[in-house]
Design brief:
single chain; alpha/beta; Rossmann fold; 6-stranded parallel β-sheet; 22 strands; 28% helix; potassium; Trk system potassium uptake protein TrkA; RCK_N; ion transport; NAD(P)-bd_dom_sf
Length: 446
């Protein structure tokens, strides 16, 4: 597959690195030569120093033969124009990064498609949805729903109160246990566990289960004393913050702390009257105390500085907040945030890359999620008629090392998978895999 990525910024560079490892024909273009130079020579891709809106430049890059053209520059208008030109020159499919939520409305989908913009991606909106999922439950690090919630993935950190520490997995229960442990993140290592593996203190454990068994997972993880989230404090009135409060459940009360007075005035126009806007510095401990940090269950740091966000979350933790979320766009800081026990990290690059990566898959994949801490991914495949995965029980399917099936949805019902399970046509299968292996798994489900 020939893929052209326009824009060597954070999203474009991260995506190019990921796709280069898949043995695809990748071309990364940018009009800023310095950005391209930062990639070095360690990746199997071609860089071209041209403007993505130059017709001659697009022709030179071979856009006419492109299977996928992705425009992710910081400029929305440039992305839209580049996609229109690329489609006109022969690119089969185009994706544009946008900043305007209105463009995503269903009534405009055909309008843009006719003009050559086939798909739109709004990273801030995707990040906001992940933040809301993260704060719904104070004891969970990561939470994702599949098939409307028929099956859920839960990531939570093991503390001293966990009931399942130091017990081999084969001893935790037989075939009828209501969960499947799909992965364990231990230090810098991600483990696809086997029966003789054990869960250790400070592991982040990823479970798949159905909603009715979430209280049971909470009990065995020793998290029953964690307060339910009712009050949320957000530091930084960014576009992500605006989207986040719009997706918050009705029962949550939210405050936004923003240091820029003009932005505070603008926020009062953008968000609901129920959201309190506070002009001040979210790092000011006296201000946080005055605004009720002691009675706040979740603190979300969304400034443009990763360092500020991490430190603010640490301060909130020390002041008794049980759930913190930090926006960390510098990938190098993610492992540091984990070592400092920041509850949840949001990274727009990973989120956007997961959604774009999904578009290049041949299989019917309705969901691809990146596990930020675990350097791994979760994908939801729809099984085609006669697919290889249906010809034997799961234990004999020959899935590659580093991949495991976490569960499936059949006729709308979530089902946990064992080695003796036989997967059927039209099942929605949730697969956990390491290091962007999803492309290698397509052949099992097609």
């Amino acid at each position: 597959m020939k893929i052209i990525i326009a824009g060597a910024g954070a999203v474009g560079t991260h995506l190019a690195k990921l796709l280069a490892g898949e043995k695809q024909d990748i071309i990364l273009m940018d009009e800023d030569e310095d950005r391209l130079g930062k990639l070095g020579n360690n990746f199997d891709l071609m860089t071209v120093n041209i403007s993505p809106t130059s017709i001659s430049g697009l022709k030179e890059a071979g856009t006419a033969n492109a299977d996928l053209f992705i425009a992710v520059t910081p400029n929305e208008s440039q992305n839209m124009t580049a996609c229109m030109l690329a489609a006109g020159l022969g690119a089969k499919k185009t994706v544009a990064r946008i900043d305007n939520y209105e463009y995503l409305l269903p009534k405009y989908q055909e309008f843009f498609a006719k003009r050559g913009v086939h798909s739109l991606i709004y990273p801030e909106m995707l990040a906001a949805k992940d933040i809301v999922d993260a704060v719904k439950m104070s004891w969970i690090r990561q939470w994702w729903e599949f098939a409307g919630g028929a099956l859920v993935l839960i990531g939570t950190k093991m503390r001293e109160t966990a009931e399942i520490l130091n017990i081999p997995l084969y001893e935790l229960g037989g075939q009828n246990i209501p969960f499947h442990i799909v992965a364990i993140k231990r230090g810098n290592e991600t483990i696809i566990p086997r029966g003789d593996d054990s869960i250790l203190l400070n592991d982040i454990v990823y479970f798949t289960t159905t909603k009715k068994y979430i209280p049971y997972i909470r009990k065995i993880a020793g998290k029953e004393n964690y307060a339910d989230v009712r009050n949320v404090m957000i530091m930084g009135g960014s576009r992500i913050a605006v989207r986040t409060v719009q997706y918050m459940p009705e029962y949550m009360r939210t405050k936004i702390i923003e240091s820029d007075y003009a932005r505070c005035n603008r926020l009062t126009e953008l968000v609901d009257d129920k959201v309190m806007i506070i002009n001040g510095d979210g790092r000011d401990l006296d201000l946080l105390t005055e605004e009720g940090i002691k009675n706040t269950e979740a603190f979300v740091a969304l400034t443009g500085s990763a360092e500020t966000n991490i430190l603010a979350c640490l301060a909130a933790k020390r002041m008794g907040v049980s759930k913190t979320v930090a926006q960390v766009e510098n990938v190098d800081y993610i492992s540091m945030a984990e070592s400092m026990d920041i509850g949840c990290v949001i990274n727009k690059k990973f989120i956007a890359a997961s959604h774009i990566y999904q578009m290049m898959l041949d299989a019917d994949v309705s969901n691809v999620k990146c596990l930020t801490f675990a350097n791994a991914d979760v994908a939801e495949f729809t099984v085609k008629a006669g697919a290889r995965i249906t010809r034997s029980q799961v234990k004999d399917a020959g899935l590659p090392k580093g991949a495991t099936i976490g569960g499936l949805i059949r006729n709308g019902e979530g089902i946990l998978v064992t080695g003796n399970t036989t997967i059927q046509e039209n099942d929605h299968v949730v697969v956990f895999c390491l290091n962007m292996m999803i492309k290698k798994l397509e052949k099992f489900f097609n």
